[in-house]
Inverse folding.
């Protein structure tokens, strides 16, 4: 009888140990799952940012290839106008002689079909269309990819890109030839893949509002009259944490240099 009780006690002890092991394993699994759930938003954010950076890279390469083959950059597609969102809209015709620098630029969305891209290449990681701005001098005057390109008077950028110090504008010679931008996670000012506008303009902070494209590429913006884009928030916007746009741009001189035009005969 004593022996039977000992066996029963031993069996109970073993069962208790197994239950404790299972409980411990479940507790550890719960901690792992909880940690994974906590990390999921961060992983998703990083993935969307990586997708956005990759598509900005593709957009810039496509723009450079277009410039090599045609000597000009394409006009933007209308942001939410009546024309198709995948082909260039109608940039304004320059007034005055073509030999004079122009301070005008146009904004819209990336004309992906004309650049040989797929539609998804023109969307950022949050599913918004990439915004694209281009200086008029890079659209209506053909430039050969040679060292002599720098002597072309009309070859100038018209897009003033500001950093955190809004009172420090770049000199005229350092204005951008083009800008490609994602409106970030909040998407404020962006055009969705369905063609609707994300966020009311009045509810957007000033920097993101100026980064939002007009409805049509034909509505030109004038840098000499204060039109500009923003690569960083202003001080008040930093404190509010409301600016998250991602910009890529090149000046005409950087574009020509990166294409190797200065090394050609």
């Amino acid at each position: 009888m004593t022996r039977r009780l000992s066996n029963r006690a031993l069996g109970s002890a073993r069962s208790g140990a197994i239950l404790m092991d299972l409980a411990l394993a479940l507790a550890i699994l719960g901690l792992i799952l909880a940690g994974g759930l906590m990390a999921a938003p961060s992983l998703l954010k990083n993935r969307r940012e990586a997708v956005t950076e990759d598509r900005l890279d593709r957009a810039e390469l496509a723009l450079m290839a277009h410039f090599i083959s045609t000597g000009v950059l394409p006009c933007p597609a209308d942001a939410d106008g009546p024309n198709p969102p995948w082909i260039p809209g109608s940039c304004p015709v320059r007034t005055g002689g073509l030999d004079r620098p122009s301070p005008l630029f146009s904004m819209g969305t990336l004309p992906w079909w004309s650049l040989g891209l797929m539609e998804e290449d023109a969307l950022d990681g949050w599913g918004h269309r990439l915004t694209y701005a281009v200086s008029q001098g890079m659209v209506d005057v053909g430039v050969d990819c040679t060292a002599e390109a720098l002597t072309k008077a009309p070859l100038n950028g018209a897009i003033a890109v500001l950093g955190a110090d809004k009172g420090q504008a770049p000199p005229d010679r350092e204005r951008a030839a083009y800008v490609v931008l994602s409106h970030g996670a909040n998407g404020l000012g962006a055009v969705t893949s369905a063609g609707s506008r994300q966020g009311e303009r009045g509810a957007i902070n000033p920097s993101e509002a100026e980064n939002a494209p007009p409805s049509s590429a034909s509505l030109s913006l004038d840098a000499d009259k204060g039109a500009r884009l923003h690569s960083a928030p202003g001080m008040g916007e930093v404190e509010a944490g409301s600016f998250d746009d991602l910009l890529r741009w090149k000046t005409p001189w950087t574009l020509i240099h990166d294409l190797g035009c200065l090394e050609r005969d």
User: Anything to note?
Assistant: The mean pLDDT is 82. The chain has one domain: 55-263. DSSP finds four helices and seven strands in the chain. The two ends are 106 Å apart (CA to CA).
